[in-house]
Amino acid sequence: MAAASKTADKTSRARLSAVIKSARDTMRKDAGLNGDLDRLPQLSWLLFLRAFDTLEGNRELMEDDYRPAIEEPYRWRDWASDPNLYGDTLRDFVNGELLPYLKGNLEDKAPRDVVLVDLFKDIHNRMLSGYLLGDLVRQLNEINFASSDDIHTMAYLYESILREVRDAAGDSGEFYTPRPVIRFAVKQSFLSLGESILDPACGTGGFLVESLEELGDKADSTAARMQLQRDLRGIEKKPLPYLLCLMNLILHGIDSPTIVRNNALVQMTGESGPASKVKVVLTNPPFGGEEEASILSHFAKGVQTRETAWLFLVAILDKLEPRGRCAIVLPNGVLFGEGAGTRIKERLMRECDLHTIVRLPQGVFAPYTQIPANLLFFEKTGPTKETWFYEIVPPEGRKGYSKTKPMRDEEFDECIAWWGGKERKGREENDRAWRVPIAEIVESGFNLDLSNPASGDDLAHRPPGDLISELIATEREILGLLEELAIDFQEAK
């Protein structure tokens, strides 16, 4: 039975939650799946095929020149309800026919379908039991994607799945951006229809989905909606976030996401010409990591550093078109970094107006890390004349955040009111906001790790955890400088 016509009833949120819970309970019984970092990818690629089949069914009805992206018998509707495919037979079909087909037999398709090849090239069926796999497929077949309302219901639930992926990924050193930070960065970037928007470290697609939500109501024609979908672009290196990002965007109505699976530092530095430039970059690049020597070779010697966040900043400067703008999450270590870091900040402030640095509260990425972070907003409109700083503080009576008490949207309200709109007019200094002329920044050696002068920096009254986190970040920065000196010494020999 065709997936799109399975039932005319909408899938309620409660019903959908029950189906997904049942599906996850089934996966817990399979010996091939160990933990959520195994189970959630398995669930996601099957859900992808389920939702994609509905989208294909809609295309078949609407397009006169329709050509299927997936041929029979590999469409979900062909095999997911086939009573002859069960147990070992189903497992062997998925492992030996379906996945090999999806990984390599779509290369002669239209560009919108090539994403499937890219998506499935690293996908594996990790379930060992064909019987449990059959149970899982039947459970997912109960989800109705027959209307846009159902897609939005699934997208809502999918957010809870993504949160659990973020929780699991935090244990392996990846820290996903809290949704209030994403919303604030997108809102204060004042996006317009027709602007190309890139997240070069898109993860599961948070910045792109929020940009879609911000602009979706303004796209009031089919042509405008299609253009908006083309303007949202992402790059993601790792297979799991890449899969989840595609699924996330598809569930939010983008049937052919423009997401590239690659190391963004290679992808961005390998592109050239005006057509490769973008108007807006919104991102939270990996920080605290180190890149291998082959990646450093893509950058000029004066700015070569193993700190990933620094390299992203350089690549973004090259990627932005004139008058383009960026909102980027960066750790404190980048603000006070020296050596290559100083040269990168000097270039940033020579080419761009670094107009605002929002100092985020301690523990915004809790419970995964206590590394202090910041949001930098800049425009490629010429040199910086002054930089405004704004300090966000936790609510009264709170020292920080936790998994059960995360940051909330309203904690940015005062900053939004102070911002001064798109033109940033009428800003005034207060106990949370202060400005620093470029002359002072230059004199300090481009140190941007500046504390609020209204609060001082009383070490005796600061939490020990804050001091330890900053000490660790400082030690890492020193280690990075020593590594750069070692590289320079080797090159000089």
From TrEMBL:
Top-level taxon of origin: Bacteria
GO molecular function ontology, one term from the record: methyltransferase activity
Domain named N6 adenine-specific DNA methyltransferase N-terminal: residues: 17-139
A Gene Ontology biological process term: methylation
Reaction(s) catalysed by this chain's protein: a 2'-deoxyadenosine in DNA + S-adenosyl-L-methionine = an N(6)-methyl-2'-deoxyadenosine in DNA + S-adenosyl-L-homocysteine + H(+)
The keyword tRNA processing belongs to this UniProt entry's keyword annotation: no
Domain DNA methylase adenine-specific: 151-456
Keywords for the protein's UniProt record, in alphabetical order: Methyltransferase, Restriction system, S-adenosyl-L-methionine, Transferase
Name the record gives this protein: site-specific DNA-methyltransferase (adenine-specific)
Organism this protein belongs to: Nonomuraea corallina
UniProt lineage: Bacteria, Bacillati, Actinomycetota, Actinomycetes, Streptosporangiales
